[in-house]
Design goal:
The protein is an alpha/beta fold. It is 24% helix and 17% strand. It has 13 helices and 20 strands. The structure holds calcium ion (2 copies). One calcium ion binds next to loops.
């Protein structure tokens, strides 16, 4: 299992950016099945990753925010995670890089999360003496550019090294589960010059961002990323750094893709390679200026859609499925492929039927939650969003893949909207104790941003196109 952090649809197999170069994801796609309409359960690391490995939805567990660590959520305290399921059935389980959200720590009172935890790479690698983009934001993580000179000094390179050494050392007969978490293209988006050279500035294609795109959005949409440290599009444009941001994201994706290639080569060189299931995913998407913002934490396509690629012996190669699937589905899928029974808490569905027949119709849509009451429902052709105050958005992906035209409120769509709204649960679990960062909560008609009530009269003149 290989994942990347904050990787959106800008990969060859999804074509989210016309210039992106990911030859290794392309070759993985060619030998497996690409789910082109796959979505995260939460547009931020901790709840997304917890849902992948526990099979439990954030709106069921109450784990919506960047903290606390998932085992502190009462509903997740005692569950058998995916690696534990494998370990319980004689597999050795290995983890390197970012799989669970940082800081990853084994709770001594609980069964081991993995047989062996390798290099975590929590620091990401060397940092420049001075931030490269001091003109953008004081946040230490928010930075990008050409750095360091040497790819091998990056923590992600060392994570791949650890995975490669482990693959070579695993005895051929030993069943194993190896999870590799690559931090790129998460900020800071540092990569060496060769990866930037793939995207020359004079030929760079930029996302199209209509200046009036937010005019048809409910006010509540702003709260999800209100006061987040990510630069607004207006600031990037004012500082003439929007192009460099896009370039650094693409360079980081290509660097991370190269690491995937190194791991695939190592696996192919082992005897176990022929009987090994390979699954690739990302924890959520990322804005590079779309809707006037950078970063994550929104319920639009660019923040919820992720690559999911599964390659396995016994299944056809080069397949694509546009049915709506969820990261939550990985747990039961891998369990079934390995002949194991997923435990009762698991809420996803096995994708094995779609690996056999990618065009099989899937009724259940993909759901993404951003704090209690805020949810996106993505079907084959539509996206419905409902916020905690009842306000809505609705998009037709056949006519409007960029989600520029909010159709909510147009009578002709009322019954379609109704069909999607029925997937939104009546009750969302209350945020678990210790939930803070990036949490938008809603109680008694008042939005609460990271613990602070947003009251009438509070200064609130957020405009990502002017701010
Ligand atoms: Ca992430
Ligand atoms: Ca719009």
């Amino acid at each position: 299992m290989i994942n990347m952090d904050d990787l959106n649809s800008w990969v060859g197999p999804l074509g989210g950016h016309p210039q992106v170069k990911t030859p290794n994801l392309d070759r993985l796609a060619a030998r497996g099945t690409v789910f082109t309409n796959a979505h995260t359960q939460a547009p931020v690391c901790n709840p997304s990753r917890a849902s992948v490995f526990t099979g439990v939805r954030p709106e069921s567990s109450g784990l919506y925010a960047l903290d606390p660590p998932f085992r502190q959520a009462p509903a997740l305290r005692g569950v058998t995670t995916l690696p534990q399921l494998f370990a319980n059935h004689g597999y050795r389980t290995y983890s390197t890089g970012k799989n669970f959200h940082d800081p990853f720590k084994q709770d001594p009172a609980l069964p081991a999360e993995f047989t062996e935890v390798g290099f975590l790479g929590t620091q990401g690698g060397p940092r420049p003496a001075k931030k490269l983009k001091q003109n953008i934001n004081p946040e230490p993580l928010i930075d990008w550019g050409v750095f360091p000179d040497d790819d091998t000094s990056q923590d992600d390179w060392k994570v791949a090294d650890w995975a490669i050494a482990k693959l070579r050392a695993i005895p051929a007969a030993e069943p194993f589960f190896l999870a590799v978490g690559i931090r790129h293209p998460h900020v800071p988006m540092y990569a060496s010059q060769k990866w930037f050279d793939l995207y020359p500035d004079d030929k760079l294609i930029m996302p199209i961002v209509p200046a009036d795109d937010r005019d048809d959005l409910p006010k509540y949409a702003d709260y999800l990323h209100w006061r987040l440290p990510e630069p607004r599009l207006a600031l990037l444009e004012r500082q003439r750094e929007w192009r460099s941001h896009v370039q650094a994201y693409l360079a980081s994706v290509s660097f991370a893709d190269h690491l995937v290639g190194r791991i695939l080569d190592a696996l192919d060189g082992t005897e176990a390679g022929r009987r090994t299931v390979i699954v690739f995913w990302s924890d959520h998407g990322y804005h590079n200026g779309e809707k006037g913002i950078t970063g994550k934490n929104s319920l639009w396509e660019i923040a919820t859609r992720v690559p999911v690629i599964i390659s396995a012996p016994g299944f056809a190669a080069g397949q694509r499925s546009n049915q709506p699937v969820e990261l939550l589905d990985l747990y039961p899928t891998l369990a079934e492929m390995c002949g194991l029974t997923a435990p009762g808490q698991v809420e996803g569905v096995s994708l094995v039927p779609w690996l056999r027949n990618p065009s099989l119709s899937k009724e259940k849509p993909a759901r993404t939650v951003a704090g209690p009451g805020n949810m996106a429902v993505r079907s084959e052709n539509w996206r419905y969003i409902r916020y905690a105050d009842g306000s809505e958005e609705f998009y037709d992906h056949r006519a409007d893949p960029e989600e520029w035209h909010n159709l909510a409120g147009i009578p002709a769509y009322a019954s379609l909207i109704q069909e999607h709204a029925r997937w939104i649960p009546a009750v969302f679990a209350r945020p678990v104790p210790g939930s803070k960062a990036r949490l938008i909560d809603y109680q008694d008609g008042v939005p609460i941003w990271q613990g602070k009530r947003i009251l009438p009269g509070d200064p609130f003149d957020y405009d990502p196109f002017k701010d």
